Amino acid sequence: MSIDKDTARRVAHLARIRVEEDALPALAEEFNAILGFIEQLNEVDIEGVEPMTSVTPMPLKRRADVVTDGGQQDKILKNAPDAREGFFAVPKVVE
């Protein structure tokens, strides 16, 4: 797969990055280099290799899956500009 100037312009637009017109060819070349590295990674034989979450084997920390009310209502409402009866108060927007 090869990235041309128009595709680089579209990717920059989707990423909300302003790229000058004269910089688009260099950006397209960088994208092509990245895709080349990815193609090299696809050539690596990973048969029999287990996925890992870290370079050191250790179990993931897990918490109990318990439903709670959070216990932080006072802390959360303290930041609200207007709170009444334990809830956020907002202006009426519908008649």
**Helix/strand order:** HHHEE
In one word, what is the shape? Answer: flat
Rg calculated over all Cα atoms: 26 Å
Strand-residue proportion: under 5%
State the total count of DSSP E strands. 2
Mean pLDDT: 90
Identify the strand order in the major beta sheet: 1-2
Distance between the termini: 56 Å
Class by SSE composition: mainly alpha
Contiguous runs where pLDDT drops below 50 for at least 5 residues? none
Q: Tell me roughly what share of residues is in helical segments.
A: 25-40%
Helical stretch count?
Answer: 3
Main beta-sheet strand count, sense and barrel state: 2 strands, antiparallel
Describe this structure in words.
The chain has 95 residues and is mostly helical. The chain has a domain at 5-42. The chain has 3 helices and 2 strands, in the order H-H-H-E-E. Strands 1-2 form a two-stranded antiparallel sheet. A hairpin with a 2-residue loop joins strand 1 and strand 2. Helix 1 (5-14) crosses helix 2 (24-42). The longest helix has 19 residues, at 24-42. The chain starts with a helix and ends in a 7-residue tail after the last strand.
